[in-house]
């Protein structure tokens, strides 16, 4: 009878450039192995995933170049801000990611860092293929046309 309330996702970092620079394919939700000071820093809203990517090493997937700044109150037990972090995925998902990267030339790009309804830190990653310059120009043209069209329709009434 009592419906479970869905808590809104608390987005910590969003990689908006990824959708412009890459054609996004299949997306996955991955857990991230973090230390306590990293979680505290994330809860404060500090993280940058714009230049980060995921890499497969020894049958595991690692998040490389993600910047989570030090948590000031952690003192000497603080973490390294740009250390590689292990992504927690199912074996089948890992094999799919590794196969797509090695055989089909995809890149694994993080899209969003957030806390889910249970309060766990999650990372949305996607298989992506880099766009060429003419594709990016086409995207810009389409976006500006959509904006102009909505202005015209609003003005018409």
Automatic annotation (TrEMBL):
Keywords: Cytoplasm, RNA-binding. SUPFAM superfamilies: Small protein B (SmpB). It is found in: Cytoplasm. One of its GO terms (cellular component) is cytosol. GO terms for biological process: trans-translation; trans-translation-dependent protein tagging. One of its GO terms (molecular function) is RNA binding. The keyword Cytoplasm applies. Belongs to the SmpB family. This is SsrA-binding protein. The lineage of its organism: Bacteria, Pseudomonadati, Pseudomonadota, Alphaproteobacteria, Hyphomicrobiales.
